[in-house]
Amino acid sequence: xxxxxxxxxxxxxxxxxxxxxxxxxxxxxxxxxxxxxxxxxxxxxxxxxxxxxxxxxxxxxxxxxxxxx
Length: 69
What we know:
Blueprint: E1 5-6, H1 9-17, H2 22-27, E2 31-34, H3 35-42, H4 49-55, E3 62-63
Parallel strand pairs: 1-2, 2-3
Helix pairs in contact: 1-4
């Protein structure tokens, strides 16, 4: 059984900056971005690549996990 990938802010931000965020969902069949991580990334500026990605195509992987960050 495959375990889900629960991704925090740092790899999401970095992969967005280098244009490789697609690796997250290509390498994992079960990707989860905790809602707290999404909130943290959402504090970035409007031009922040990770913020823009999470507001659009990345939003499908945001989940409430019950975990605090």
